[in-house]
Amino acid sequence: MSIFSKLFKLFATVVLMPLIPMALLLAYYQNRQTHTVLEIHYNLAEIVSSDITRYAEDTRRRFAAALPEEGMTQPGTAAALEKMLSSLPEAELVAVLDPAGHETARAARMPRAQQPGKMALSLEEIQTALAPGKRGCLGTLQEPDQTPVVQVLYPLPDGQFLYAWVRPVDLWERLQQMRIGRTGQVYLVSAQGELFSGPDPWPLGVRAKDLKKRFSGNSRLIKRLPSAEGPLAGAFAWSEPLGVYVAVLQLKEEALRSLYFTDLVLILFLLAIATLSYFGALAFSRSLGEPIAQLLQGAQAVSRGDLNYHLDEEMGWGEFKQLMQAFNKMTADLKDYQALQLKSQVSEMKEQIFRSVAHDLRAPLLGLQGYIYILSSGQLGQTEREEYLRRMSEAAQNLSSLLEDVLAVSRVEAGMTLPRLQRVELDPLVQSVLHTLAPAAQEKGLALSAEGDGGTAWADPKLLRRILTNLLSNAVKFTQRGFVKIQTRQTAERTEISVADSGPGLTEKQCSEVFEKYHQVDEGAEGYGLGLFISRQLARAHGGDLTVHSVPGRGCTFVLSLPKEGK
User: Fold this and answer.
1) Which of 134, 167, 253, 414 is least buried, going by the fewest C-beta atoms within 10 A?
2) Does the pTM exceed 0.85?
3) Alpha-carbon span 460 to 538, nearest angstrom
4) How far is CA 514 from CA 379, 415, 528, 549, in A?
């Protein structure tokens, strides 16, 4: 995970954690506010229901006041009904029912074609209408012209009943004028969910079964009601006199607009926090990432041994700047320490080389001095003089070989040994090296042989001869019995020359140390421990390498790998 991702999560967590209780509090607040808004709708519905109850009481009183003093006597019933109808403008029809509920007389303003048939109410309907809560109302009817009509029943002193149709136009007009906002309105709805429209209806497009389902619930509040205009919200109350529900409905979007605005503000606030967290984490990660990247690069450079890498301290800030200053001081101190250590190592190495060279030079020089002194005495015969000259020649050759190796090491380390590459035929070169070492191998009874593809190598012939001679001479020197074999192999990319023997072999640790300068596996053996070091350096100067594979007790195999021409 990147620094930016971690910091962004950290910023978001720190900033958003306090928002969790805030969001819970806001959710509670919104729920309470929604309930409060719907309670306002319910209070309005209750007010309207109370108005309808008062209207029913007023209608009952008006009917009582309109009754003739002599009552509804049979001969004057029609005339009395006509007089009552003229004194009650909102009445559309008045009739007298006998104690059994059957119509005996009527008077009506509406045309006969629109009048209902002869009225006949059951005793149950009469008892229900005269119950205390109904106040003489039988409920409402829906007329063909979509104007609701209220049925009124009033008991007469002689046991008969006055039945009337009343069209409460003033009540409907007041209901239509009751508004909440732009879309909120009051409606009268039957128990089956059918809407009683007023003079100026607002088309809701609400299904009757949806309203009926809400009426059958436990709550008087409507949080969501689908309609053609969109989801509605509101409340309802029961009107006992008319036997209808008073529903106050409003588009939910308008009713809860203030809450939606709060939600929008919260969402924008969260987006602003997320944006600030993103850019804050981005800026902070950059201010952290650049110094950390610099420190990482510096650490990698130091791990590679590059102590010259210097950090730009101006990129750091606070503790980072102090850390970068400390890093630069550390690399400077390490560089000084490395220089001192290198001087110490060089001095120690020089002393070691001088001691080794002085020790190795002392013997041949002393021998040469002794032989020269004896020869200069003139007391030797011819045979003795020739023997001493031969020994002087061997001492001079050893001295020359030692000096040549020391010079070769110096040239290799100084980068002065540059191979002059050319195409070299391997078979003649290998055979020449074998002929040179054949006497030493025959003296020890070793089988010296060559095999392989032969071919050519892209190398310096003089340096290649020196490498092979060194490898073969070491193999002959340390192998007491068995064989020494040189093998050539060509691949698509490289030329490989291997020298294998049946000597004592090397351990894994010895294999890792055998190419070190002045290192000798057998400290009692002749030599100075420079041959394999020089051979590997010469191989790498060709662009190749020299490696060793060995199993203790099963001999060694040194492999010289050289690139092909143009590779």
Assistant:
1) 414
2) no
3) 10
4) 48, 22, 12, 11
